[in-house]
């Protein structure tokens, strides 16, 4: 039997916080899984969702290298221990805080659609490069950089083998940026509605730009950038540009919970997860999305 074949990009242990507390005792614990519109409701075990075969496996000939998968498992165990301390209202140590940074930073880059986005860019570059017809009599162009270069075969591997090439460096850089540029607050949900989660739970948020700057590229260093991560129906992390570390425990009222769930739902790839069958927020959030899109269209028409 192949070991560690199914690999979760949203960890099972993370999702267990959303198991329905009202499920009957003889049932296997389950979460409520929906599509992004709040439909196609299913009750599913956290072990049976949001995973793919060998998503993080590095293949070296006939060998399956599970280094990344085992590392994620260690980080997940550390996160669960911190979450239990939060739920028990126990003070967090510096190591606990560091573990939250690592877990959140990793969740930002673990989803398969994120990995595929960058892998497809490399494949597109190689395809375009291979389509260029080169005059064999032409003199080679002088390099404009002194840095390392990639052959087409090496660049092709970046597209075909993310785990064996760029993914680990990307993962480390993402965690490093989060830890160096962001401090975070812990939101405590005091409303009657839960924080939801999704198949892409770590959300990067950028405030709207003025028309003058709307085409500027934005990243984690962009002014006003925030990263949000619900860690249970009652708790969520809010990362903002400020001194690194845990700053405050903030009460999340109805409006704060709505905003958090708005980001979670609208940035989900396909699925959202709740601890209950009633998704109070979805229609309200989708109505708000429709209003925003209509406003964009009106502004575009006026600008034309």
UniProtKB/TrEMBL annotation:
Pfam families in the record: DUF4238
InterPro entries: DUF4238
Protein name: DUF4238 domain-containing protein
Organism: Bradyrhizobium diazoefficiens
